[in-house]
Amino acid sequence: MSANRLVTNSRSISAPLILWCALAAIAGVCCLVLPPYLMPGGFHQRVYGWPLIPWFALAWANLHAIASMICFFVLGLMLGLVRPRQWWLLAIAAVALSPVLLTINIVHDWGHDATSHNLFPFEYAIYGFICAPAFGGALLGFLFRKMRVPASGGT
Fold first, then answer.
1. Per the domain annotation, does 154 fall within a domain?
2. How many CB atoms sit inside 10 A of residue 4's CB?
3. pTM of the prediction?
4. CA atoms within 13 A on the CB side of 143
């Protein structure tokens, strides 16, 4: 067994893949959080409730959907180009961390006021709509890479 592989049952997980998944997750959070912080006039709403993660709650309250969707698409495209065999896994990793942070804030707010986030399922539906371009971009990156690399020696 090499030092670069962790063996679990019959499947092996490479350390670089774990690193790529972590980077994809962090970049996915950045796709959602950075547009309000970087765009002029990005903050027009105050944070509601008692968020445990205030920087995330502030970005969520001031969401720039189109900018975030473009960021998710570009992230997915880059991930599909860099790691074409794991494009679907990296796309999932890219969109998985933000709902966890959102859930932490919602549960924490419910501890202070049970009537807050009374439409919380729609928050997840909105997030699902905003992050969907990551999958399209990753698939497109995979297809571009597949067309570029000959079938006999592709990655």
1. no
2. 9
3. 0.83
4. 6
With beta carbons less than 8 A apart as the criterion, state whether 91 and 25 touch: no
153 domain-assigned: no
Under a CB-based contact definition with an 8 Å cutoff, are residues 61 and 46 in contact?
yes
Q: Return d(Cα 32, Cα 99) in angstroms, integer.
A: 11
Instruction: For residue 45, tell me if it sits in a domain.
Output: yes
Q: Name the E strands within the chain.
A: 5-8, 11-14
- Total tally of structural domains belonging to the chain: 1
Structural domain contains residue 70: yes
Query: Given 3-state DSSP classes, what are the helix, strand and coil percentages for the chain, each rounded to the nearest 5?
Result: 70, 5, 25
User: Beta strand pairing status for 11-14 and 5-8?
Assistant: antiparallel
Torsion angle of alpha carbons 135, 44, 119, 99, nearest 10°?
A: 40
**Alpha carbons 120 and 124: distance in angstroms, whole number:** 7
Neighbours of 69 (CB within 10 A): 21
Give residue-wise pLDDT tens across range 58-94: 999 999 999 999 999 999 999 999 999 999 999 999 9
What domain range is 92 assigned to? 5-148
